[in-house]
Amino acid sequence: MSDVVSTRLDEKEIEELNQISKKERIDRSSLIRKFLLTQIEEYRLKEVSEKYRKGLASLAEAAVLAKVSIYKMMEYVEREKIQAPPLSNSEMEAELERSKNYSKRKIFNNFILLQRLVMDIGN
């Protein structure tokens, strides 16, 4: 379900939106929604990248929190030149183990979903 959200814009802003919507060949409402969703995603990336920079979240965890793929998170971190604090050897080993466990859980969950799909198709 979606709600209607309204906002006030100056004539110049409306005209610019109209020009862009013509160029993009989409209606003005869709264009505004597209812009808004892009900025929401950018905001989430900015917020969680700070956790990554402080070492409070791994890159994979940051991607999950930002609701983006790890590749998109990697692109953002690279573009913004954000670096996590250096890890000690023990922290690197713990991170590697956590990543392995995460991958195993993800593979297992995908396997279960695939089994269910196969069972549903068979029925």
- Taking the alpha carbons of the first and last residues, their distance comes to 32 Å
Helix content: over 70%
The value of Rg in angstroms is 21 Å
Q: How many DSSP-defined strands? A: 0
Multimerization status: single chain
What is the approximate shape? flat
The low-pLDDT segments are: none
Notes on the protein architecture:
- With 123 residues, the protein is mainly alpha-helical.
- Helix content is 76%, strand content 0%.
Please outline what is shown here:
The chain has 123 residues and is mainly α.
Task: Please specify the SSE layout and strand pairing.
Blueprint: H1 11-24, H2 28-54, H3 59-66, H4 70-79, H5 89-122
Helix pairs in contact: 1-2, 2-3, 3-4
Task: Note the main attributes of this structure.
123 residues, flat, mainly alpha, single chain
